[in-house]
Write a structure and sequence with these properties.
The chain is built from ten helices and eight strands. The protein is of the alpha/beta class. The chain has an eight-stranded mixed β-sheet with strand order 1-2-4-3-5-6-7-8, sandwiched between helices. Strand 3 (61-67), helix 3 (81-89) and strand 4 form a beta-alpha-beta unit. Helix 4 (109-123) crosses helix 6. The chain starts with a helix and ends in a 5-residue tail after the last helix.
Length: 293
């Protein structure tokens, strides 16, 4: 099994099993799902997402963007189809996105696309029944890294790309990160350094400036989105000290949130921990996005 295939497999496990682990016995609201919606363009390449919408109420709903993992080189929006419907049934407008993948497309293509997806949501807020001031991001592994980027980058930080909707903000108001890295210049095992080479288009020693720009900790400052991060202390891909680095940066900047360490867990969690952490994620998002439904 190749490094990249291994990374993709364990990354998908992080969140793909969550929908079946929760909400058993719930009576979901009717959810409308639109697939393969074009949210922007990268040159001539169409960028696609699926959007899951609850019945429109009297008030605009909060939004969520789901970002898949896979070492920035694999996975797809389909990985989170079930999870998107679960959250939509609870009253969120949910977009699960495809983004351009390495090695064909190297950094910053991936974050440019995710930013474009957030801007698309805001530009279409009225027809989606969405409150553009209440959008969160949730992702696992590489997707967690990209979700963090959406929460810490400000308009002047760049990496917006030319996908469209340039008049809209790409910053989200809350972040949930499952096992995503925060400092790409930190200590990483060899397998992760190889994945990072694929993502950056070269070894990080050669792509130092890109590694800095691709690290969420580079952008942390006061006023950033509150974030909730889950890390396993036996993760073979993303050492849990990435969570310590993130926690220290957020603390210095007085950004609210927390980092949880699951003792003995790897790059995916046992079913009971998946259930517990998703429940905690929902409570966190409800609080931060002021979701009262």
């Amino acid at each position: 099994m190749s490094h990249f295939r291994f990374a993709r497999t364990v990354a998908i496990v992080v969140l793909a099993s969550l929908p079946c682990a929760l909400l058993r016995g719930a009576e979901p609201l009717a959810v409308e799902v639109k697939t393969d919606v074009e949210y922007g363009k990268a040159g001539e390449e169409k960028l696609l997402l699926d959007v899951s919408m609850p019945p429109k109420g009297d008030q605009p709903r909060p939004g969520l963007i789901f970002i898949h993992g896979g070492g920035w080189a694999g996975g797809s929006k389909n990985d989170f189809a079930g999870l998107a419907k679960d959250f939509a049934a609870e009253g969120y407008v949910v977009a699960n996105v495809n983004y351009r993948l390495a090695p064909k497309h190297v950094f910053p293509a991936q974050i440019e696309d995710c930013k474009c997806a957030v801007r698309w949501m805001r530009a279409h807020a009225e027809e989606l029944g969405l409150d553009p001031e209440r959008i969160g991001a949730i992702g696992g592994s590489a997707g967690g890294h990209l979700a963090l980027m959406l929460g810490v980058m400000d308009s002047g930080d760049g990496l917006e790309g030319d996908g469209g909707w340039a008049d809209q903000s790409s910053k989200v108001q809350a972040v949930v990160n499952y096992v995503g890295p925060s400092d790409l210049l930190g200590t990483l095992p060899e397998i992760s350094q190889n994945i990072l080479t694929n993502f950056l288009g070269g070894k990080r020693e050669e792509k130092h400036d890109a590694a800095v720009k691709a690290s969420p900790v580079t952008y942390v400052n006061e006023g950033d989105a509150p974030s909730l991060t889950f890390m396993g202390t036996k993760d073979p891909l993303v050492p849990h000290d990435q969570g310590v680095i993130l926690a220290n940066k957020l603390t210095e900047a007085k950004v609210p949130g927390r980092v949880e360490f699951i003792l003995g867990a790897g790059h995916g969690f046992a079913p009971e921990e998946m259930q517990r952490t998703l429940k905690a994620s929902k409570e966190f998002l409800k609080e931060q996005l002021k979701h009262d439904d």
